[in-house]
Amino acid sequence: MSVNFSNVTVRLGRDADARIVLNAISLSLNAGEQVAIIGPSGAGKTTLLHTLACAIKPVSGELTINKEIPWTLAKLALHELRGRIFLAPQSPPLPPRQRVVNAVLAGRLSSISTLSALLSLYKPKDAALAFAALARFKLEDKLWLRCDRLSGGERQRVGLARMMVSQAPLILLDEPVSALDPALGLSALKTIQDEATARNATLVVSLHDVQLARARFARLIGLKAGRIHFDLPASAVDEATLADLYGAEFAEAAGMAKPNAAAAELPSVLAAPAAARCF
Fold first, then answer.
1. Is 49:87 a contact under the CB 8 Å cutoff?
2. How would residue 264 be classed by pLDDT, with cut points 50, 70 and 90?
3. Strands 3-12 and 60-65: what pairing?
């Protein structure tokens, strides 16, 4: 699916409490492209994904998906479009008493009848499909477990396994590996990208792990205060660019903060004769 934002502004809240969360966003994604969205907390990354999923209507500007404007479509057509978009929140809303097998197969709800969906709750006929999807994330042994028996990282991987069975041509993932250790997170992200490539799906992922984003994605979009701060090839996103995006805290953590006057004088002090040193 191709996507185009043209001066899209999104406001959340009502009346006096309403605030602009996305401000005049313009960007284009080609069908099959894979992009990472990075930026500080509160930058608008989650809102951007929900807008892409046609869950939030912009107050101005134009969003087109495959050259169609979602909010001008008839109700049924908009419902069908949403069914072709997969959005995974950072914490998947899995019903506590639901079995993992049913949670994964829920990714197919938009493509099966209501009767089939209801029957599947009692006797999942595609359990093998769910098993294979879970195996991609080393979670196949949890197939018949209840969701309230899962850890945070396991719940996150169940959400990703649901994406595997969805066959959606537009995949939107909000911090999909935040609850996973580095090795498992890298493996899961690679699996996601391989699946998106195999089905030529457009993939948009928000990530807090900047180094992971730089390592795995060819294009990075930096979001700050609801605006596109940069849209660059990953190779062009250096520490200075990231410090500008995240601010002084990133620069300090990366060892990029400017030395103070005392630190600047330290080499000359150390070079002085021992008798001249005051420490």
1. yes
2. very low
3. antiparallel
Whole-prediction pTM value? Answer: 0.86
Q: Choose between 124 and 138: higher pLDDT.
A: 138
Rounded CA separation 208/25 (Å): 20
Dist CA 121 CA 137 (whole Å): 23
**pLDDT at residue 129 tops 50:** yes
Cα three-residue angle 193-196-201, rounded to 5 degrees: 140
Residue in this structure with the two tokens 């899962």, named with its chain if needed? 150
Q: What angle separates helix 152-166 from helix 182-198, to the nearest 10 degrees?
A: 10
Torsion sign (Cα): 52, 54, 58, 64: positive
Q: How many CB atoms lie within 10 A of CB 83?
A: 13
Please, what sign has the CA dihedral across residues 89, 90, 93, 97? positive
Q: Is 97 helix (H, G, I), strand (E, B) or coil?
A: coil
* pLDDT given for residue 218 in this prediction: 97
